[in-house]
Amino acid sequence: MDKNQILEKIGWRIKVEPYSQYGISPHGIILSMVDDLFFKEIERTIEDNHLPFQKIEDADKEILVQRLYDTFVIGNPYALWLSFKYVPYSIDCNMEDPYFHLLDLIDRNTVFYFFIDYEHIGFVVYKAKLSDIHIFIGDCEGLDEYYLVTEDFMELYSITDHDDLLYIDVRKNEMRIDNKPG
User: Fold this and answer.
1) Which strand ranges, in their side-by-side order, compose the sheet holding 145-150?
2) How do residues 141-166 score in pLDDT, each as one tens digit?
3) What is this structure's pTM?
4) How many C-beta atoms surround the C-beta of residue 56 within 10 A?
């Protein structure tokens, strides 16, 4: 669900004229409201499902995000999957949402860092078992792209906004020869 669908779903109508006189962008106002909705939806999903997620914040989050980039990404791309350092394996999900195949491919007890890409401007990061992440993904509205990274940062699963499931194992995948985004 994109931002417009979220706004439509809740039926919000916003008068933007009064804000323009203060130099506040109507676009910024809408983004702020959608930001709130997105984060509230994440919290709701965790609480409603009693998920034992460990939220990673502040300096610890910054360290993990930097490690994600250092290990898997070239530069600072709009979407990480566009610039992986390694040539990812594309896992065929028969034209279905990869969500439906995760538990068939990965041990449900595997612990991951769960990086939820928020509009390509940042991440919400949790640590949890795949079985709990799977419940979360199935219930949370508005997820677009997310990354599952093993605790040792050796493996990454990328679920893109195109419903592609990409996999990298740094011990096995080939590095990009030209070291340029793919």
Assistant:
1) 54-56, 122-129, 111-118, 145-150, 155-159, 165-169, 89-91
2) 888 889 999 999 999 999 988 889 99
3) 0.79
4) 20
Which two structure tokens, joined as six digits, stand for 40?
């509230």
The beta-carbon contacts of 24-32 under 8 Å, at least 24 apart in sequence, are 30/3, 31/3
**CA dist list (Å): 97 to 52, 92, 169:** 24, 10, 22
The answer to whether residues 42 and 140 touch, using CB atoms and an 8 Å cutoff, is yes
Query: Do the Cβ atoms of 165 and 159 come closer than 8 Å?
Result: yes
Task: Show the tokens assigned to 33.
Answer: 């409201």
- Report whether 130 contacts 148 (CB < 8 A): yes
What is the rounded CA–CA span in Å between residue 28 and residue 79?
21
Low-confidence ranges of the chain (pLDDT < 70): 1-35, 120, 179-182
**Which sign does the torsion angle of CA 107, 113, 119, 120 carry?**
negative
